[in-house]
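This week, work through this protein record:
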Amino acid sequence: MLNPNLESEQVIDQFLTTKHGKTRYILNGTNLSAPTDHLIVFVCGISSHSYSFHFLVKALMKQYESLRSSQQNIKYLRYDKYGRGKSSNPLDILHDGDLFVEQLYELIDGVELKPRRVEQQNNSSITLKPRITIIGFSMGGAIATLFASKHSDLVDDLILFSPAGAKWKLPFGSSLVKVSWLGSVVYGAIHNASTTEQKISTGLFNLNDELVKERVKFAVEMKEKEDESSSQISSFVNSFTNFPLTAIEDKIQHVGTKSHMKIMVIWALFDVTVPGDECLSTYFTLLGEHPKSRFAIMNNTRHMFYMEREEDTAKLIYNFLNDSNDDGDVFERSSRALQNIQQQSANEKLMTSSDKIKLTYFTEHPVFKKFII
């Protein structure tokens, strides 16, 4: 296992004033004062904030450091969306796609990245745009897709973790949350009916794994420390009501026309939050023919697969970002992203009846079975 401790790591944790309040962000790197060659941005899900990527950032930094394959200065940016963590919770505006795309744009534009300047022979200089990678999880995957569709000139790489945005059957009773006078009451009751640990645990497959236990403990501590309950309830209801969680297929398709952009979609095999057996086919249909797309399905994981298979996720990201060869079809490209990652057999002892249905779906699918690791 990679050691998550980096002696040379530098961290900035502060606020940026944006149009609708303040946005809390965390910037990691090994030399934050130097010009930026590559910015990797993490966009969290509907009910989480920047803490959820804490260990993945460290694992990815360690991946680059251990292989020493890049002389570029890479910086890692994560932030709290409006209504989450320490960021402002604007109450007088819809928490829709436009709001979160605007917030992300303001953040990337406002963070001091110190672009690299290159001297020319005629004593002039040019400013190089940093390579920008957007990684979005769940609702954050939909935000990342919307952002890449609107600001495709800014995005070089798009990585989607079990992204929302395609059509799927939402949980029973979820329509009640969208009733204006009832939403906060219904979600508030659901929110208060279980502990923070129980909520987080629904997105995980193997709760007996020691690493998973550590990550859950950290997530619980950070969520209870940084999330204000009433703010979280109002922002969740606002987002659930107004954000297009199941309705951005046109934007996914538009991203699929951007041939310069590298794209990777990763799904948890046993995901019950944004089920891959309902949603992955949409993303594959719209992005599978893209000349730079890759796909992966993580076995023995639920929604938050990057917490359960942290090191493998970091390897996937690293392999993808460092594969300059876009030759071959989607299967050949994906196989290169999956190299050096051990394929796992399904842990049947932990599987529910629903898990077994998903396993059958993916392992018998003529296309998707080739992406399972």
About this structure: The mean pLDDT is 90. The two ends are 17 Å apart (CA to CA).
